[in-house]
Design a protein that fits this description.
This protein is α/β, with parallel strands linked by helices. The protein is built from 14 helices and 27 strands.
Length: 558
Amino acid sequence: MINVPNINQSAINNSGTITSQPQTVPANVSQQNNTTPNYTATIYPQETVSVYNPSENAPKLTHTSWFYINDVHGKMTNMERIYNISKEFDSTPANVMASKFFSESDSVSKFKVSSGDIILGEEIIPNTVASQFLNWSGFIASALGNHELDITKPETFAKFLSESNYKMLAANVDIDPNSPLANKIHKSMITEKDGVRYGIIGIAPPDMHERVKLNDTLKDFTIYDVEETIKRVQAEAKRLKEEEGLKHIIVLSHGGNQLDKQLAKDSQDIDIIFGAHTHNLIKGITEGENLFYSKTGEPVIITQAGKDGENLGILNVSFDQDGVIKKAQNNIIKTRDYNRPLFIKDTVENILGKPEVVGRVRSAVAPPENRLIENNPHSNLITDAMRTQLGTDIALLNAANIRGYFSQGPIDTRLLTDISPFGNKMMILELSEKQIVDAIKYGLKTSFSRASNKPGLLLVSGMRYTGTKQGELLELEFIDKNNQVHKIDINNPRTDKKYTVAADDFFATGGDGYLESNKNPNFVLQKFNVDKNVLAADYIKKLDQPIDITDDKRIQIV
């Protein structure tokens, strides 16, 4: 049975609260004060001694339970677990799942929604599984994330959406009417459950052009900035309220936490924002963090469940007759607490093929808490495989490419895909010392200066470097094939000194901005129709078994 925290003192300590007692705000606060609610609102999540007298005159509440995910990033083993939890969510009565929130007499409507980035990479077969996962699990809608546009051909993406039972939503994009994607992505949708209609609006990332490079699918899109996005979402919410008569407006946002907070405070018709993109893990409900008040003083709740399908959320919300949130409970569930059902695992393997065991891990250091801005020993096996298998001087890989970690036990090809799921094709490049130094400096400077820590540090093999949390590069060394160390002058790197570099086509063509965007760069020496996981599998087979994942401190941040 799904075990979400009951609304009691033990749950307060683990998941956060607004206050130790239900918070009641006077009903006569002026509407001109946008920071203070102007009506009586009781938002829990802890004590459920109901303020609603169970008499004939008690207000009628609409009870809902929202199963939400975001930024799963093609992690199929976690998709299998999420599927398992979703079916338990379907079969478990809401008053059993959250016994201190819902009563036995409450009729609870259940929904499943996604805030985007479920797909990742351009490989068709894994993306087919990711799209089908949403169908199998019963999701009704998903926001358009940037990784959905990893599908480089618009006709391929259109085919996926044609076979989907869920709606893809983005109110802040316009699509070329001649595109195969025309009429496949919607601004909003209306869903009805138990006689109540709900409006659901989508948001695509306003920084889509920074996150997706040189992509035929992207050419069909016009994507609006943060300011225009908020205006368009507000207009769509107003339309749903006035023209459709809806009292419950939900937003699936792949716009990031700052946009979500601004939208919550600047709008007046929105109740819940299921967020994504910045990979925040938001537990409980805390005023000023994920509980805000709209221009008319009504509460707006924001959620986000981290990244890579490591967690999912269940948000329980009760609305009054005017569609105003009267109580709410936000629960975060770790997906690894649940098994991968054998039948769904077999279904996935029937599509992908059976994984091949290529090695075994004897011991492994803990993965970093933030893979974007910390040295990551679990990436070393991948970058070393790239350099060794292609016979280059060094290997370079963007940190965001690594989405998992090794642990004690067998290594199979499914695990390698989970760790590095993008499927970008490999290349051998010839880069100057200056190009390499500038790329490493770019990774340091941008990752530590942005709240999102994107795009992340540049991972290396055949090199080691030291940087600061202020984003400065202090020292860089090249380690040749004879294990000799050569210090590089980071202040005056040479333009005439060249290195052969193992990298993927995303990095080579300017993905994430480490190099200049160029669909056909002149420094490419050789292209391969394989991704880095093929190289990693072949490399691991050659190692003495079992192997140890250790920290050689090739990247140090001081």
